Amino acid sequence: MRTITYREAVKEAIREALHHDERVFLMGEDVGHYGGCYAVSKGLLDEFGPERIRDTPLCESGCVGAGIGAALGGMRPIVEVMTVNFCLLALDQIVNTAATLLHMSGGQCNVPLVIRMATGAGKQLAAQHAHSFEGWFAHIPGLRVLAPATIEDARGMLWTALADPDPVLICENNTLYNMEGELAEDAGPVDIDTARIRRPGSDLTLVTYSASLYKCLEAAGVLALEGIECEVIDLRTLRPLDDAVYLESVARTHRVLIVDEGWR
Question: What positions carry a catalytic annotation?
Answer without folding.
Answer: 60, 129
